[in-house]
Amino acid sequence: MILVSDIGNTNIVFALFDSNSELQKIFRLSTQKNRTSDEFASDIFIQLSILGVKLDEIEGGLISSVVPSITESISICFRKLFKIKPHIFTYNSNSGLNIVYKTPETLGVDRLVNCAYIWKYYKKASIIIDAGTATTVDIVIDGNYIGGMITPGLLLMRDSLFFNTASLPSIPIKYSDSVIGKTTVESIQTGVINGYIHLLRGLINDIKNEYPNVEFDIWLTGGFSNFLKERFIDIKSDIDLTLKGLNYLFYRNLE
Fold it and tell me: What is the DSSP string of 181-227?
């Protein structure tokens, strides 16, 4: 099996794929920057044991990270536990895309992973929304990674009100029955959630206006994709898109 690791700002997601590139198992660890490689290795070992996966079943690995301080620790885990050297995916890796981004060295590689996978398997101009801690909106056209937008995610929007005001509470992320909040909690919910949805719709429309002759597919992925997809029309959703992209890029970058 192939083990891929997506190191994000909130969680480190691990996914196991079989020899047919079918996603088999997923587990998550908290992204804690002060942990040692031994501590991460212990947690990975425990999670694999719970899932019934033996260490010698892991034949290859790939790591994608937007948290550089943890990347090497997870790489050490692969070498210690599985006796393999994982590929660390960067903008210099073989993505199958032409990167026209002006500062590729600053590019969050998860954005590139999503676009690489969509272009490989769908060959359509696409807008890809990854709704995580930060929300990214990325554009791929004719095999070119064009760029995109970065905005705070739903939790960051909610938490900014709670942590930066004296009286506003932290609220659960769920839809209100009305667009007009009748309580403070409802007011925050409708303001944050509906405001976030309209932000995404506005960004999509701006992209379409900038490329009036391009017909885009719209994709939604990330931790909040299942929550959001019901509020969008004609949108494709795959919460595991990034993980599938990492598995694809493992094979593309075999040395």
Answer: -SSHHHHHHIIIIIHHHHHHHHHHHHHHHHSTT---EEEEESTTHHH
Quick check: 255 pLDDT over 70? no
Q: Where are the domains of the chain?
A: 2-88, 98-154+187-246
CATH fold match for the domains 2-88 and 98-154+187-246: yes
Q: Are strands 236-237 and 217-221 parallel, antiparallel or unpaired?
A: parallel
Over residues 180-186, mean pLDDT: 93
CATH 3.30.1360.170 fits 98-154+187-246, yes or no: no
> Which residue in 174, 168, 123, 130 sits closest to 148, CA to CA?
130
Question: Among all residues, which ones are annotated catalytic?
Answer: 110
Burial class of residue 61 (count of CB atoms within 10 Å of its CB; 0-12, 13-18, 19+): buried
Task: Give dist(CA 27, CA 49) in Å, integer.
Answer: 11
15-70 pLDDT tens trace = 999 999 999 999 999 998 889 999 999 999 999 999 999 999 999 999 999 999 99
pTM of the model: 0.92
Q: Classify domain 2-88 at the CATH superfamily level.
A: ATPase, nucleotide binding domain (3.30.420.40)
